Amino acid sequence: MKEFIKYIFIVIIVICFFESCSKSDDDNDSKKKVIAKITLKSLDDIDNGVEIYANQTFNFSYVNGEVSKIESDNYVTSFNYDNKKLLSVTYGKENIDTKKISYSNNKIIQTMTLETMTEFFYDEANKLNEIQSSYIESNFLKKYSTKYFFLENNIIRTYKEPFINPNVEEITYKYDNKNNPYKNHNINFRLIWGFETYNLSENNAIEEINGNKTIDYSIIYDSEDYPIKVTGTDKKTGELWTEYTYEYIKI
Questions:
Q1: CB 83: neighbour CB atoms within 10 A?
Q2: What angle do CA 128, 217, 35 make, to 5 degrees?
Q3: Could you tell me if 98 and 115 are in contact, meaning their C-beta atoms sit under 8 angstroms apart?
Q4: Source organism's superkingdom (predicted)?
Q5: pLDDT tens for residues 86-113?
Q6: What predicted TM-score, i.e. pTM, was given to this entire model?
Q7: How far is the C-alpha of 155 from the C-alpha of 245, rounded, in Å?
Q8: Best CA proximity match to 196, nearest among 211, 181, 186, 184
Q9: No. of helices (H) and no. of strands (E), the chain
Q10: pLDDT, tens digit, for every residue of 213-251?
Q11: Residue 14: in which H helix or E strand, if any?
């Protein structure tokens, strides 16, 4: 009888263990995967034929499922929301500057800082069409424009018109079919903060062509098809151009 009771007790423990694990997995699956940390290595300069690389680390903090703070090298960028609506961004631990955000129909149409004004334009499908930036000291007359062209949900081409250089810079992109690291991030956060244009896309850039320069991106993915390491190299010279390492959490 004692052996039978012992057996039943063990069976109950095993069942509870697996139910607990199953519940934990279900809870984890219901959470969204977001960026916890980005480590960036990028070509900064070439001195006497020697490549000089800059290294940065970006640590993400979250409140109520939204990015609340990004810290990098003792520099802090804070994001302020009304529910899920991003209202402003403050820069520096002592609020060196604040970017105020204006909306129309829940889409960002303008941001203002102490020095710049940026305007956002969309096409009939509500996809980003153009961003124009101008400086207060120029009375907002001189504008820097970037135009965006989509194929489905990926930006495949941009045209950049700088203030000084009269030549339009055209960049084209090719993509994989995997998950962009920013996939589960607030689209307005993605518009305001990001390293590259293609972070607004659904997938990951595997090639970037800018004039005579072609950057090939090799990507290592995790088990859920999110990038954990992206290495960009100059196709012609083999020179390392940039390298991203991503770490994620589920919230």
A1: 7
A2: 60
A3: no
A4: Bacteria
A5: 999 999 877 678 999 999 989 999 999 9
A6: 0.82
A7: 22
A8: 181
A9: 2, 16
A10: 999 999 999 999 999 999 999 999 999 999 999 999 999
A11: helix 2-30
